[in-house]
């Protein structure tokens, strides 16, 4: 079976990529599954694209193989776009989904539902040794609930209600999330490249 390395240590992301790539019969392998230890890449960029490129290009260079990286996050309008590129570590180190959610809910305290609009962003970078890096972007629009609900997914899923739904992302099945998510939208943009990769 064809393989692709996913430059992530986030198990939630890795599981979603495994599902996406399985329909092309490609085995998506995340960093903790590799036999060699891969050091953390410092995400020093100022945009999702810069951080995705840092992760993909550094690891493609080390492994001399095509590598896909995902840099993603939650952009909340009432918070001037925060947590944005700092979503994973919004409440500080070590990164923790629950303390991040607590901080966001606290900052949105007193803000009514119509003004709690937000979107997830996913930028994918595919780095191929010797080639130009490819970038694809996906979005998922929604609103930040006043309380947590649901146990599926990861990150901020338990407070994010996608447009057109009454439940949070964490109350949806993984199949449903994978139909509408920012990550899915970015993967759709990558379809032509993935088909070519799968055929080789
Ligand atoms: O509720 C969510 N549903 C999602 O679908 C989602 N996608 C991203 N996020 C948030 O954004 C951070 C990414 O930061 P990030 O791209 O640096 O990834 P990360 O540090 O978790 O792992 P890595 O891929 O860098 O190893 C994550 O930790 C989450 O807080 C999500 N939250
Ligand atoms: Mg990260």
From TrEMBL:
Q: InterPro entries this protein is in?
A: dITP/XTP_pyrophosphatase, ITPase-like_fam, RdgB/HAM1
Q: What EC number(s) are associated with this protein in UniProt? A: 3.6.1.66
Residues that bind substrate: 8-13, 72, 154-157, 177, 182-183
Q: Where does Mg(2+) bind?
A: 42, 71
**Cofactor(s) the protein requires to work:** Mg(2+)
Recite the UniProt cofactor note for this protein: Binds 1 Mg(2+) ion per subunit.
Keyword terms, alphabetized: Hydrolase, Magnesium, Metal-binding, Nucleotide metabolism, Nucleotide-binding
Reaction(s) catalysed by this chain, per the record, are: XTP + H2O = XMP + diphosphate + H(+); dITP + H2O = dIMP + diphosphate + H(+); ITP + H2O = IMP + diphosphate + H(+)
Which Gene3D superfamilies does this one have? 3.90.950.10
Judged by the first EC level, this protein's enzyme class is hydrolase
A single GO molecular-function term is: ITP diphosphatase activity
Per the Swiss-Prot or TrEMBL record, the active site comprises 71 (proton acceptor)
**Family statement drawn from the similarity comment of this UniProt entry:** Belongs to the HAM1 NTPase family.
Q: How does it assemble?
A: Homodimer.
Instruction: Outline what the protein does.
Output: Pyrophosphatase that catalyzes the hydrolysis of nucleoside triphosphates to their monophosphate derivatives, with a high preference for the non-canonical purine nucleotides XTP (xanthosine triphosphate), dITP (deoxyinosine triphosphate) and ITP. Seems to function as a house-cleaning enzyme that removes non-canonical purine nucleotides from the nucleotide pool, thus preventing their incorporation into DNA/RNA and avoiding chromosomal lesions.
Q: What name is this protein filed under?
A: dITP/XTP pyrophosphatase
Protein species of origin: Lentibacillus kimchii
């Amino acid at each position: 079976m064809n393989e692709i390395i996913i430059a992530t240590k986030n198990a939630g992301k890795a599981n979603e990529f495994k599902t996406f790539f399985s329909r092309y019969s490609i085995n998506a392998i995340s960093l903790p599954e590799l036999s060699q230890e891969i050091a953390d890449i410092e995400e020093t960029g100022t945009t999702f694209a810069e951080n995705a490129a840092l992760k993909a290009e550094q690891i493609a260079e080390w492994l001399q193989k095509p590598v896909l990286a995902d840099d993603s996050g939650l952009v909340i309008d009432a918070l001037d776009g925060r947590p944005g590129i700092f979503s994973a570590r919004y409440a500080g180190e070590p990164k923790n989904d629950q303390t991040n959610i607590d901080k966001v809910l606290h900052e949105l305290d007193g803000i009514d539902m119509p003004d709690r609009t937000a979107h997830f962003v996913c930028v994918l970078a595919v780095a191929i040794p010797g080639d130009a890096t490819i970038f694809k972007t996906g979005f998922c629009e929604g609103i930040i609930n006043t309380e947590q609900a649901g146990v599926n997914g990861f990150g901020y899923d338990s407070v994010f209600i996608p447009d057109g739904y009454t439940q949070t992302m964490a109350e949806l099945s993984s199949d449903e999330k994978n139909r509408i998510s920012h990550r899915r939208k970015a993967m759709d943009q990558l379809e032509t490249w993935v088909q070519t990769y799968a055929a080789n």
